[in-house]
Amino acid sequence: MTTHRILLDTNVLLDAVTPGRPEQREIHRLLARCNGEGDRGIACGLSFKDVYYVTRKRFDEPTARQAVEWLTKLLVIGPISAEECLDALGSNEPDFEDGLIRSCAELNDCDFIISRDKDAFAGSTVRCVTAREYLTQVVQKDERRMGFEW
Fold first, then answer.
1. Structural domain harbouring 136
2. What is the pLDDT of residues 33-69, one digit of tens each?
3. Fewest CB within 10 A of the end CB: N or C in the chain?
């Protein structure tokens, strides 16, 4: 089975830890693939900060810490250093945070960015897809090639 390096955008991480968010079922399946089924899931360190902040505001501090801890057990923390910051500043991304996500994906040789905001990464060399698209267009195709059916 083909394995991929995938970078999960902040909105996808929030979908994973917040009930009722879009594509939550698909994101949980995708995270399961990062926990023993072969894919290497990566998320920028700044995304974990955002997950903590939003989750704490919506729920409480212990829940926010638990959410971040769960994600860090499944995903590699992609660094945000001076290189990523300067790369993001020099990119054609209109949003600096999206530029950081894009830079993190490109500098970590990711195959895909998983995001619901596909337009944000249109200029990236890394292909951006939703969690559902990744599962149906990439994973399902690989599994069919191997003789598995959904």
1. 5-145
2. 887 667 999 999 999 999 999 999 999 999 999 999 9
3. C
Q: Which residues contact 106 (CB under 8 A, 6 or more apart)?
A: 87, 124, 125, 126
Q: b/e string for 94-118 if b means 16 or more Cβ within 10 A?
A: eeebbbbbbbbbbebebbbbbbbbe
Does 148 score more than 80 pLDDT?
no
Residue 37 is assigned to a structural domain of this protein? yes
Indicate which CATH number applies to the domain containing 27: 3.40.50.1010
In this prediction, residue 132 carries a pLDDT of 94
* 150 in any annotated domain: no
Q: CA distances (Å), 23 to each of 29, 116, 139, in order?
A: 10, 9, 16
CA 67 – CA 39 distance, rounded (Å): 21
Q: Is the pTM of this model over 0.85?
A: yes
